[in-house]
Amino acid sequence: MYAIVRAGGRQEKVAVGDVVVLDRMAAAPGSSVNLKALLLVEEGVITTDAAALSAVTVTAEVMQHERGEKIHILRYKNKTGYRRRQGHRQDLTRVKVTAIKTGK
Length: 104
Fold this sequence. Notes:
Distance between the termini: 14 Å
Strand content: over 45%
Largest sheet: 7 strands, antiparallel
Number of helices: 1
Radius of gyration: 19 Å
Number of domains: 1
Number of strands: 9
């Protein structure tokens, strides 16, 4: 069984026991969070109905907060001497999926 969940502005495919890296969540390490299921596949049966998915809960445990790889942003305009350099590191949260419960 696996589910497609919404986490921040992204969608992730998760199954029980999977460790996924998501955008930073406001939850302490060791606490558990619920993720909204958008699709559920159980024994070959695909569920996409919003009413049926409202009963599905995907529970994950927050393992740690971390930062992603640094990316470099460069801006350049020719013939003017305009150059700007900027860096960015995304704040991330590593979670482990502990349960996918259906409303059955």
